[in-house]
Design brief:
Rossmann fold, disordered N terminus, single chain, binds calcium ion, 38% helix, elongated, 8 helices, Arc Repressor Mutant, subunit A, five-stranded parallel β-sheet
């Protein structure tokens, strides 16, 4: 794979440390995946004017490594290293972050495919910046409204996971886990009763969903099963991932 000569420089507009989940007037961290310098500059400028912090990357591979910090992803479908729809599918296996697709492909089929692959909305190029802002705000508003507060204690059977204190008890007895084992368990506990893909666990725990650490995950799942002693609570869902509860 040959990476393009330009653009190579990231605009100096990384995420700030202080942030608020954005609604109108509040600062949002936006990941812009766009290889066209002119389009990117215009979007960075207008979002900056409204107080949002934009981190821009040109390649899909970079987006997979930086999406965790974002409140919203703006995704161009024509990227130098992978098809934007493939990237969208990969992102959807690991994150529920809102994604607005930017596409020059204004044919209905591309738009429908984008939405089926998990886009929350789409904007057809050439982009009208006012419309883009309004769509971003609407998508984030919906996403914030859907998100409940993070649980602190998760109980399943006689297993109690304290996500704040990083402790686990089984039948009232404290269980010693390694840090990584606890992180794997925490991802599953936050999604109690739902299947969590292997890629999402690897992304949240190791920071990269698509590197060769699959065996490491298997080892940690085995360790967890052995220490919890409740194999029926931590299930492998073949071809999909794992489920707690
Ligand atoms: Ca492009």
């Amino acid at each position: 794979m040959t990476r393009p000569v330009t653009p190579t420089r990231r605009p100096d507009c990384g995420y700030g440390r202080d942030h608020l989940i954005g609604l109108r007037g509040a600062c949002m961290r936006v990941l812009l995946v766009e290889d066209d310098d002119g389009v990117a500059r215009a979007i960075v400028d207008v979002l900056g004017t409204y107080g949002h912090r934009v981190h821009r990357c040109c390649w899909g591979a970079d987006a997979l490594l930086t999406h965790r910090e974002a409140d919203l992803v703006l995704l161009d479908l024509g990227l130098p290293d992978m098809d934007g729809l493939d990237l969208l599918r990969k992102l959807r296996r690991i994150t529920t972050v809102p994604v607005v697709v930017l596409t020059a492909r204004d044919d209905e089929r591309s738009v429908v495919r984008g939405l089926r692959h998990g886009a929350d909305d789409y904007v057809v190029k050439p982009i009208r910046l006012g419309e883009l802002l309004a769509r971003i705000e609407a998508v984030v508003r919906r996403s914030v409204a859907q998100k409940g507060p993070e649980p602190e204690l998760v109980r399943v059977g006689d297993v109690c996971v304290d996500l704040r204190a990083w402790t686990v008890e089984v039948a009232g007895r404290a269980i010693r886990l390694t840090g990584k084992e606890f992180e794997v368990l925490a991802v599953l506990a936050r999604n109690l009763g739902s299947v969590v893909s292997r890629e999402r666990i690897m992304d949240e725990v190791w920071g990269d969903a698509y590197v060769a650490i699959s065996r490491s995950l298997d080892v940690h799942i085995s360790g967890l099963r052995a220490k919890l002693g409740r194999p029926e609570l931590l299930r492998t869902i073949r071809g999909l991932g794992y489920r707690l509860g």
